């Protein structure tokens, strides 16, 4: 199963996704990571300590976009399911 | 209301300065997240699913209009224009930024508020009866004693690293509106045969993974000695509470392992040892604090009758006002469970309106209830219609106190990192079946539905007449159904009825339970809980698992 890397920005707490060279707010811009490379990537990033709660998220790839396999990570990616007003129009809460 | 003196303010200012420095050092990467995390948690700052969450302490759930207005300001300036009132009578903000946190703390401290001891293994915010000082059935106002406990427990050096968190509730009537039997210590103010005030002391209650009802370890401790007695309980717990296993670290486990007689003996021995230290507050301190909780200047000529010719207003008066000790007055519950709403959420604009109403009609006092509603404790009956009119326009006049749509729900997986499942959508779906029909809700009568998104039980599911617990079933959200709990004076723990459900299944199951209850009750006066206690689980189970 493919994986992407996530974390929360230290300064703001924002949910972030690793795009291969930088962090992005949008899951659609994330980069797939080989499962074997995840541990090394997290170990490499951790000393910088600017992103908290680094973790790999399992996703399926559907029509070119990523869908985390757990509800928890879908809620993280999209926002609270009970606040549709906070979600991006391109990623509405009914896709949770 | 209690106002800070110089010492109170100095304590908060010093703590704020300390934490601001810690935040700055973390932002400059001078300390690691592993070093910072326990510090921020001790200051009520969590990292949740979407952002930082801040929990602000509201001592015994009491706020002034000025404080409520500041909470609205914080929601507006630092968050997304709303806050969430919790089952601990606190408020949480869900979208806080660390880089703005220092300014936020300064703003809070301007109104004698802070966020420390809302997390961590310390004595948490003291909770109490939302009708304190107004209830006709109380022996005295419990808030001065809750305030003494607040001062005693604030940064108490011996109790800042307990085996686990520690929760204390104080009430002053036989009716329990603060769930004292589900607290680590529950204190019930009462009078002995000589007419002296003292506390019945309950210990070892709690929810979470191992729900337990508290046991009485002393029928009467004079108010003059209740602080040293509390100190003795905490000392025994601090010494022997388990630190090797987080799931066995609460005082309820220690009480259970030692047995109540042995635990009581140890507390009494410890208390005897403490006597020479004279730890109790002097009478002058009691007097100073009690003097800050006077009755408001009641209007002795306030009329006692209410014109309820408007049926919608009449239904609200019936449901959401509570008998007051002063003729011509009532206590008003402002429901934070409107149709389609999120239990406990209030917008900044609503908070501002409530602050205005408190100042205009309620002697500048607001209370937060453990059911995630708000209370204006002292309102003239003659002002109720004007008050209701403003509340109604602000979406705050839902007449559903203690009814099927007045559901407690924790933030669940919509916000919380620990959750197994979402709670709020379940509350909304259950409420949606009834919220447009006030008469049907009133016909069902008192029904307390409580929903937690995980075993930690912040949504008090074990104390629900109907309790719902979110669980993880092979990666899917699932829900257990429990029946028969109560957090009131008739406290009991809800028991699992049978196999769990998915999201739609649990909503249908609740619907079937209510349908069965209505067909089986002896009459409209028999509550759901009473019918369950009379009939036992079997027929309810048959009704659900058809
Ligand atoms: S009960 Fe669980 S899911 Fe709900 S707020 Fe508490 S820890 Fe989070």
Automatic annotation (TrEMBL), chain A:
InterPro entries: DUF2849 (IPR021270). It comes from the Bacteria. This is DUF2849 domain-containing protein. It comes from Polymorphobacter multimanifer.
Automatic annotation (TrEMBL), chain B:
One of its GO terms (biological process) is sulfate assimilation. It comes from the Bacteria. Residues 119-271, 404-544 form the Nitrite/sulphite reductase 4Fe-4S domain. It holds the Pfam family NIR_SIR. Its EC number is 1.8.1.2. Signal peptide: none annotated. SUPFAM superfamilies: Nitrite and sulphite reductase 4Fe-4S domain-like, Nitrite/Sulfite reductase N-terminal domain-like. Its cofactor is siroheme; [4Fe-4S] cluster. Residues 52-110, 324-393 form the Nitrite/Sulfite reductase ferredoxin-like domain. GO terms for molecular function: 4 iron, 4 sulfur cluster binding; heme binding; metal ion binding; sulfite reductase (ferredoxin) activity; sulfite reductase (NADPH) activity. GO terms for cellular component: sulfite reductase complex (NADPH). Keywords: 4Fe-4S, Iron, Iron-sulfur, Metal-binding, Oxidoreductase. InterPro entries: NiRdtase/SiRdtase_haem-b_fer (IPR005117), Nit/Sulf_reduc_fer-like_dom_sf (IPR036136), NO2/SO3_Rdtase_4Fe4S_dom (IPR006067), NO2/SO3_Rdtase_4Fe4S_prot (IPR045169), NO2/SO3_Rdtase_4Fe4S_sf (IPR045854). PANTHER family: SULFITE REDUCTASE [NADPH] SUBUNIT BETA, SULFITE REDUCTASE [NADPH] SUBUNIT BETA-RELATED. This is Sulfite reductase (NADPH) hemoprotein beta-component. It comes from Polymorphobacter multimanifer. The lineage of its organism: Bacteria, Pseudomonadati, Pseudomonadota, Alphaproteobacteria, Sphingomonadales.
């Amino acid at each position: 199963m493919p994986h992407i890397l996530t974390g929360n920005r230290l300064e703001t707490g924002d949910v972030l996704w690793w795009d291969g060279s930088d962090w992005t707010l949008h899951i659609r811009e994330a980069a797939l990571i080989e499962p074997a490379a995840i541990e090394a990537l997290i170990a490499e990033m951790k000393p910088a300590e600017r992103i908290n709660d680094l973790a790999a998220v399992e996703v399926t790839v559907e029509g070119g976009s990523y869908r985390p396999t757990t509800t928890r990570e879908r809620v993280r990616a999209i926002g609270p399911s009970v606040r549709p007003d906070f979600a991006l129009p391109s990623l509405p809460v009914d896709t949770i | 209301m209690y106002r800070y003196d110089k010492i109170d303010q100095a304590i908060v200012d010093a703590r704020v300065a300390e934490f601001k420095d810690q935040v700055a050092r973390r932002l400059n990467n001078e300390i690691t997240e592993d070093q910072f995390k326990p510090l921020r948690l001790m200051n009520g700052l969590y990292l949740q699913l979407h952002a930082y969450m801040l929990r602000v302490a509201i001592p015994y759930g009491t706020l002034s209009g000025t404080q409520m207005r500041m909470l609205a300001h914080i929601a507006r300036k630092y968050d997304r224009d709303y806050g969430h009132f919790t089952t601990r009578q606190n408020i949480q903000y869900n979208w806080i930024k660390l880089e703005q946190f220092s300014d936020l703390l300064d703003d809070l401290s301007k109104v004698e508020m802070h966020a420390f001891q809302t997390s961590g293994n310390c004595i948490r915010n003291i909770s109490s009866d939302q009708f304190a000082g107004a209830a006709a059935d109380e022996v005295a106002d419990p808030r001065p004693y809750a305030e003494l406990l607040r001062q005693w427990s604030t940064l108490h050096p011996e109790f800042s690293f307990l085996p686990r968190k520690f929760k204390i509730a104080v009430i002053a009537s036989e009716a329990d509106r603060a769930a004292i039997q589900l607290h680590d210590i529950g204190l019930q103010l009462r009078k002995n045969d000589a007419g002296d005030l003292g506390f019945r002391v309950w210990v070892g209650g709690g929810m979470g993974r191992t729900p337990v009802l508290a046991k009485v370890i002393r029928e009467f401790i004079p108010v003059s000695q209740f602080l040293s007695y509390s100190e003795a309980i905490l000392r025994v717990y601090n010494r022997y509470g388990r630190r090797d296993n987080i799931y066995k670290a609460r005082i309820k486990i220690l009480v259970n392992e030692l047995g109540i007689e042995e635990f009581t003996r140890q507390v009494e021995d410890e208390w005897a040892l403490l006597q020479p230290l004279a730890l109790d507050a002097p009478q002058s301190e009691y007097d100073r604090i009690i003097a800050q909780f006077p009755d408001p200047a009641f209007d002795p000529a306030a009329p006692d009758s209410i014109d309820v010719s408007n049926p919608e207003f009449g239904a609200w008066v019936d449901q959401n006002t509570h008998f007051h000790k002063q003729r011509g007055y009532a206590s008003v519950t402002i429901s934070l469970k409107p149709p389609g709403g999120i239990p406990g959420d209030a917008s900044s604009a609503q908070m501002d309106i409530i602050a205005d109403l408190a100042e205009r009609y309620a002697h500048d006092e607001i209370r937060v209830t453990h059911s995630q509603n708000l209370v204006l404790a002292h309102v003239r009956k003659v002002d109720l219609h004007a008050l209701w009119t403003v509340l109604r326009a602000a979406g705050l006049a839902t007449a559903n106190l203690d009814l099927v749509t007045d559901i407690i729900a924790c933030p669940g997986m919509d916000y919380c990192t620990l959750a197994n499942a979402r709670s709020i959508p379940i509350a909304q779906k259950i409420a949606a079946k009834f919220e447009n029909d006030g008469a049907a809700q009133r016909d069902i009568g008192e029904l307390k539905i409580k929903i937690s998104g995980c075993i930690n039980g912040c949504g008090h599911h074990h104390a629900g007449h109907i309790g719902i617990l979110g669980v993880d079933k092979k990666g899917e959200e699932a829900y257990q159904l429990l029946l028969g709990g109560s957090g009131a004076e008739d406290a009991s723990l809800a028991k699992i009825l049978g196999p769990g459900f998915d999201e739609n299944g649990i909503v249908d199951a609740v619907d079937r339970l209510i349908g069965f209850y209505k067909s089986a009750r002896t009459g409209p006066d028999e509550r759901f809980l009473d019918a369950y206690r009379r009939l036992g689980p079997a027929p309810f189970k048959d009704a659900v698992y058809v």
